[in-house]
Amino acid sequence: MDDEEARTRLLDAAEELFYRHGIQAVGMDRIRAASGVPLKRLYRLYPAKESLVTAYLERRDRRWTAGLRASVATSAQPPVLAVFDWLAQWFSEPDFRGCAFLNAYGELGAAAPEVVRVHKAELHALLAELVPAGAPPALADQLLVLVEGATTVAALSPGPEPARRAREVAKLLLSK
Predict the structure, then answer these.
(1) Residue 19 belongs to domain with CATH number
(2) Which domain holds residue 34?
(3) Contact, 131 vs 80, CB < 8 A?
């Protein structure tokens, strides 16, 4: 196994375990066991748990954002509403456990990796790109609150309904 394969295996294991059980509840030995990567190589690639957490969140950010962008780009719905349609699908996935970035912040607080803040800033920027021309500047802020609120509600009660309800509010905001 080369370093690239080892990284992939480690990140796959970290993503599954951190997202399902929480960052603090999962030790490096558990990730090593789940990935099949020797402990010496794990620590050579990720010298501290914090570096593995950051790499996991950075990869998740790229995948999550790319998935959202692709869905919006191919949707027949207005772009802002397509965001909530995508969220409804995500919230319905069997392994949905809420927002990995908010979960990380909830566990680690101010010690959470910077990628948590970067992810939220990127989400805000994406929403700002999608609002119709001439919309009030605050609309992207309001949409971010809807997205985050729906995600939090769905973490407690998985399924598409929180996204559907947030979509209805977004429709009202767009009609103003």
Answers:
(1) 1.10.10
(2) 1-47
(3) yes
Distance CA 81, CA 57 (A): 26
Of 79, 57, 54, 55, the closest CA to residue 68 belongs to 79
Q: At what angle do helices 100-108 and 139-156 cross, to 10 degrees?
A: 80
Q: How far apart are the first and last CA of the chain?
A: 57
Contact 30, 87 (CB under 8 A): no
Does the structure show a pLDDT above 80 at 176?
A: no
Does any domain span residue 69? Answer: yes
Whose tokens are 């999962």? That residue is 26
Which residues, 6+ apart, have CB-to-CB distance to 138 below 8 Å? none
Q: Mean of the pLDDT values across residues 36-51?
A: 95
Helix (H, G, I), strand (E, B) or coil at 138: coil
Q: What is residue 137's predicted lDDT score, i.e. its pLDDT?
A: 84
